[in-house]
Amino acid sequence: MSLLTVDELTVTFGGRGRKESRAVDGVSFEVDQGQVVGLVGESGCGKSVTSLALMGLLPDKGVTVGGRAEFDGTDLFTMSRSARRDLRGSKMAMIFQDPLSSLNPVVPVGVQVTEILERHRGMKGEAARKEAAHLLDRVGIPDPTRRLKEYPHQLSGGMRQRALIAMAVACAPRMLIADEPTTALDVTIQAQILELLKELVDQEGTALLMITHDLGVVAGLCDQVNVLYAGRVVESAGRRELFAHPTHPYAHGLLGSIPRLDAPRGEPLSPIRGSINDRIAWADGCAFAPRCDRYEMGCLTGTPQLTEPRAAGHQVRCVNPVLDDAKAEEVTA
Amino acid sequence: MLRLVVRRLLQLIPTLLGLSVLLFLWLDRLPGGPASAILGEKATEAEVARINRALGLDQPVYVQYWRFLKRIAELDLGTSTQTGQPVWDEFVLRFPATVELSLLAILIAVAVGVPLGYFAARKRGGWLDVTAVSGSLVGICIPVFFLALILKGVFAVELGIFPSYGRQDTGIDATSVTGFAVLDGVLTGEFDASWDAITHLILPSIALASIPLAVIVRMTRASVLEVQDEDYVRTAEAKGLKRSVVRGRHVLRNAMLPVVTAVGLLTGSLLSGAVLTESVFAFGGIGSFIRQAIDARDYPVLVGFIMFIALVYVLINLLVDLAYSLIDPRVRVH
Amino acid sequence: MSVATKTDKIQRLAELTAVKETSTGASLWREALRRLRHSKMAIVGAVIIALFLVLAIVGPYVAPYSPTAQTWRNEVFPNRGEFVGARGENWFGLDHLGRDVFSRMLVGARQTLLVGVVATLIGLIIGFLIGGVSGAAATLGGDAGKRVDSVIMRFIDMMLALPSLLLAVSIAAVMGQSLTTVMIAVGVVQIPVFARLLRGAMLAQGGADYVLAARSLGVRKRRIVVSQIVPNSLSPVIVQATLSLATAIIEAAALSYLGLGNPDPAIPEWGVMLTQAQRFFDNAPMMAVYPAVGIIITALGFTLLGEAMREALDPKLKG
């Protein structure tokens, strides 16, 4: 049985007089023990909202969460608030996008690490400080005892993200959610942080849910990939399978729009037309239809279902999938 | 830290110098000049000339200014025309009363304003929020002396719960040690005197607290609203920390930063308010004295007071800046 | 109003114009107006101000009696604490000299408005000039300009450091008692606020891309300042002027309470009326309550509208 099973998750903002908008519209996926799963899509596709819903970090007011999410055998959405609070930081942890704004500017880094040890591992005083130094050391921060006394603004961007990772892995969580952990960093630091994440996950057997718009990150890290569009999974497959045979026109387009060094000179990039705002409701048909090159009449007759047109375990939500491999080439991981 | 203190003190010098020039010019422009202030309107020209010579007013302006500066540096602010005593001594005598009153007022404003602003922000749009916000808007619009009058009329005159004027009942034979009535009572063991002083403080300090309270409520509210949406609060939540820790260490601690600055900046309005409040309650502090000085055209007292206030204001803001640098590590690095 | 709200507002307001650059100027105002129409605060404030303006205009013509005639002099005895409260012929009762308080309130509205408006205009105009020069020097004057700017700002900060009421007291002490003194004293206090605000806004504008574009096209500096930077920096100044009207009316009342106001009590003005009435507060509290409530409501009207405008212009504060 998988560690996390998300079933028909919906998140709706607004309501009570204001216009409703559905950010997540029936997302389903699974994360197995020790597996790295990618949630990929452009901004606005609902990937961050999905992660916040799973962590229970959406605001109480003005948000409705529907569907089921089972973590380690218990339903996340029916458990009590305090049980959820106990779970966060200990069994499920999260790393955020912007390391500077995600750290409290007026509290020393050390306190921000020890507070989670005090909370979930009952450690106090010197023991907690020692463990905190050990954690910083483990995520590759040099001179950890000195760094513990420093404030976030005194650390470099990469070190801040390392510190946040140290907090996330402090209680050896079963699952780690990383929401674009490298977007705000320099390219060289990005690679280091990804390497670190990979290493930690491999050592501990932690499951990692990687939220990103960066296909390079996916190619380097993920075992299983879910491509999101307009709040729904449109394609789900193993990494190799997906990069070899992107079958949904959207995923196909995403891969096609990556600039490649080995492409013939003068060949234009092929971006996807329009933006995520040009969409229709899933209830009326395929939300991607307005931007799709392979659009046909069938696209607008009811919600397309996930099927496996190509291979077992390779799910695609499309009535007119890309099945000829003429243009799809293998992207080396 | 020391360097910060020294640098801030050095920055004070041009401000105070500029201020002294303004005050000097102002003193020079007073109607009829100091001579007629001393002699009255009906002085003869010969008398005026004699006084002017005695005061050195026949000398060039820069000489006069230099002497003015020297006098200020020696804390010689002249002699009050009302009491015939040195202005500085009069201030020192009355300052503790005003400090007591202002401290209690700011204490009330912080103790009530911060929680009120905090809970208003937490339940945004709720009844508490609406009451706090509209209350503080109205509070800013009530003239301080009118509020003082109402409080006195209702709670002192009508209901007789609190005394209506003065710092202490004349019947109480209190020993003065520091000049701070409440503290003196505690030091000498005359707790009844302390209590009596406190009852005298309550109404004036509530009146004086009204504007700082209104400002602090609104400031805390706005600040909490901003901070609770910050990423680091979400991080704290993601760590599963206890609510009290999230709210105390991560929300409140950051939200307090602008409020601390505000408290420093409020000192100015507090001192203006003290002049108005003290005169309503005949509270024997600097405020009442200034009110009398305005009525009596006691210019040495007024000039001295403005210099004094400017100094107090600047020093308090220096203290606030230092306090700020203690709670916000980001400003420490220079 | 307190220094804290002042400085805070100055900073916040000054930042607003920087926001303006991201959308187009006109649409920001339109957006702000749209939000203002939905703001209860703005509506209440505007209604209060409108009523006050009507009162100030028609007040003297509809007052039932002369505001200065001591018609009922024989019915009030301040020494004995005998006063006349509200009654059929005098809706708000009589004052200590036997004058009709209702008529005095009606006529006094105009004086009160005059004090507020003139004082605010003094602060606005002088502050605008100082801030404009400082801002122009800082944005386009090069190194020399920056030096001019920093000297001016030192001076302005010095003025801000003085408690406003005491600054007003000292000005009033030099100039003697009169309504003009009160207006000037209250107005001078507002100068540094406006100066800082305009300068801050201009500085924010000065760094905007369109200024850079205009400069690179060779538009003359003076033209850029006058036709681009200043117009785009106006919104916070307008908001502050609204808020200042409230402050001016309250501070004018405080000055007259301190005995620095209008020496001619025959001309009714709410602050002066309040000051006179407070002497008899224990026996005739209502005599003080009428002008006080008038002042509070008027100040509240300007505050509400000003705050609502500030919120409407500030996308961060909306809601």
Automatic annotation (TrEMBL), chain A:
Family: Belongs to the ABC transporter superfamily.
The protein's name in its UniProt record: Peptide/nickel transport system ATP-binding protein
Alphabetical list of SMART domains matching this protein: AAA
CDD domains: ABC_NikE_OppD_transporters
Single GO molecular function: ATP binding
Subcellular localization: Cell membrane
NCBIfam families: oligo_HPY
Domain (ABC transporter) ranges: 4-255
Keyword Repeat: no
GO biological process annotation, one example: peptide transport
InterPro entries named among the record's database cross-references: AAA+_ATPase, ABC_Ni/Peptide_Import, ABC_transporter-like_ATP-bd, ABC_transporter-like_CS, Oligopep_ABC_C, P-loop_NTPase
GO cellular component, one term: plasma membrane
Main location per the UniProt record: membrane
Membrane topology annotation: Peripheral membrane protein
Alphabetically ordered keywords of this record: ATP-binding, Cell membrane, Membrane, Nucleotide-binding, Transport
UniProtKB/TrEMBL annotation, chain B:
UniProt keyword list: Cell membrane, Membrane, Transmembrane, Transmembrane helix, Transport
Main location: membrane
Topology within the bilayer: Multi-pass membrane protein
Bilayer-spanning residue ranges: 9-27, 101-121, 133-155, 197-217, 257-290, 302-327
One BP term from GO: transmembrane transport
Gene3D superfamilies the UniProt entry points to: MetI-like (1.10.3720.10)
Example of a GO cellular component annotation carried by this entry: plasma membrane
Pfam families per the UniProt record, alphabetical: BPD_transp_1, BPD_transp_1_N
Domain ABC transmembrane type-1: 95-324
Subcellular location per the Swiss-Prot or TrEMBL entry: Cell membrane
InterPro entries assigned: BPD_transp_1_N, MetI-like, MetI-like_sf
SUPFAM superfamilies per UniProt: MetI-like (SSF161098)
Annotated family: Belongs to the binding-protein-dependent transport system permease family.
Protein name, entry field: Peptide/nickel transport system permease protein
UniProt source species: Streptomyces griseomycini
UniProtKB/TrEMBL annotation, chain C:
Transmembrane portions of the chain: 42-63, 113-140, 152-173, 179-198, 237-260, 288-306
Any single Gene Ontology cellular-component annotation: plasma membrane
Record's bilayer topology term: Multi-pass membrane protein
Protein location: Cell membrane
Principal location listed in the UniProt entry: membrane
One Pfam entry name: BPD_transp_1
Keywords of the record: Cell membrane, Membrane, Transmembrane, Transmembrane helix, Transport
Family: Belongs to the binding-protein-dependent transport system permease family.
Name of the protein: Peptide/nickel transport system permease protein
Species name: Streptomyces griseomycini
